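Re: [ENG-882] Designed sequences occasionally contain unexpected residues at chain ends

Forwarding the minimal case from QA. Structure tokens:
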């Protein structure tokens, strides 16, 4: 098919040309005396993205799942009591990992389309007078359902009852795209991956750790080897790794961080909210609904869109790919076949979002959904133009 594939899944995301070119270089010696000139600033700058001034960041050759495991096995001990919630496929996978690693998991199951139940967390924490809960887990952005939860509110709940539990956050599809403030929100372990807001291929797991969590790791009794903090610290402090690092990905990371800081994190957050509003306007114009049950849960990085009864989402995704060379995100687990997803994060602008919406609209029409041609794209255009006019008026 002429042209190129249009990628609008919630990860891997589109890679900017500057980042692709930065990775297009010969292999290099990761033990050379000059290698720390690359790596030491990388550690510092990834910390800037997490807004972590007092701890440190680990960069693992893994997906975000590896960074999940690194956080739990270094900081916690077998049998520790942890408080978690499950409301989508990725929060479910985190719970599953905790159970398989031998932690005592208190899991609160919520309706898919909602998020972290802050009030229920507060009740559990207040009732835990003996402080048996060692860690509280928050999936900041549930990619399967397009739901964002309030991390700051969970920190407030911990502080309100003076509970010492550590706060763990899965920010794989949020950090670098949605407002995140590790130090301000008292987050002890924050996880992300290279293939989302960092605009890279999959292959790097980021774990940003507070000073409190680093202290806890000194007495953590869980077995670990590949993900050991001790091994990483010994070599990272000199600019190296305890094993062969993905040298080309690290060169790409340098380029992606430069782009992030050139645009500015606050501007990136504003852009993602702006683009998400365009998608939401289109969904409303189509007469469809988001999987996120109410606006307080809406994600600025991915929208999961509910399909009419009787329409198989799997076939919708296949049709978009085969007919319009466009990759849309599929529904997962409980919402498999019931939703399709549009990823609107990373290196993205209004015209690219309009392309995603046009492909989705063409597909929905072909699949028999009763919508007016141009309705969703037109609504997004109006949303974008109104936002631009407002911004211009404020600047005047």
């Amino acid at each position: 098919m002429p042209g190129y594939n249009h990628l609008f899944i919630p990860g891997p995301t589109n890679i900017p040309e500057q980042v692709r070119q930065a990775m297009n270089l010969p292999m290099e010696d990761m033990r050379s005396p000059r290698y720390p000139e690359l790596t030491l600033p990388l550690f510092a700058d990834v910390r800037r993205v997490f807004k972590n001034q007092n701890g440190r960041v680990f960069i693992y050759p893994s997906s975000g799942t590896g960074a999940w495991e690194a956080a739990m096995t270094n900081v916690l001990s077998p049998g520790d009591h942890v408080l978690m919630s499950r409301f989508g496929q990725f929060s479910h996978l985190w719970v599953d990992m905790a159970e398989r690693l031998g932690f005592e998991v208190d899991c609160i199951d919520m309706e898919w389309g909602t998020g972290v139940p802050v009030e229920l967390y507060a009740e559990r924490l207040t009732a835990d007078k003996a402080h048996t809960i060692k860690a509280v887990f928050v999936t900041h952005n549930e990619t399967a359902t397009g739901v964002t939860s309030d991390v700051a509110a969970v920190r407030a709940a911990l502080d309100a009852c003076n509970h010492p539990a550590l706060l763990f956050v899965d920010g794989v599809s949020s950090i670098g795209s949605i407002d995140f403030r590790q130090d301000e929100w008292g987050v002890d372990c924050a996880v992300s991956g290279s293939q989302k807001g960092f605009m890279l291929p999959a292959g790097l797991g980021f774990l940003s750790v507070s000073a409190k969590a680093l202290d806890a790791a000194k007495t953590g009794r869980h077995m670990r080897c590949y993900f050991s903090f001790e091994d990483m610290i010994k070599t990272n402090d000199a600019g190296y790794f305890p094993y062969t690092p993905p040298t080309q990905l690290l060169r790409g990371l340098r380029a992606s961080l430069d782009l992030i800081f050139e645009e500015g994190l606050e501007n990136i957050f504003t852009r993602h909210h702006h683009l998400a509003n365009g998608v939401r306007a289109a969904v409303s114009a189509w007469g469809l609904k988001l999987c996120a049950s109410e606006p307080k849960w809406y994600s600025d990085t991915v929208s999961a869109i509910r399909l009419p009864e009787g329409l198989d989402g799997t076939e919708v995704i296949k049709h978009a790919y085969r007919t319009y060379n466009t990759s849309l995100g599929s529904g997962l687990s409980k919402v498999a076949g019931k939703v399709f997803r549009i990823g609107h994060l990373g290196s993205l602008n209004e015209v690219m979002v309009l392309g995603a919406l046009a492909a989705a609209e063409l597909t929905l029409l072909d699949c028999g959904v009763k919508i007016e041609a141009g309705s969703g794209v037109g609504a997004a255009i109006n949303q974008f133009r109104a936002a631009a006019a407002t911004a211009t008026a404020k600047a005047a």
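QA comment: On inspection the terminal residues look reasonable. DSSP finds 13 helices and 14 strands in the chain. Proposing we downgrade this to a documentation issue.
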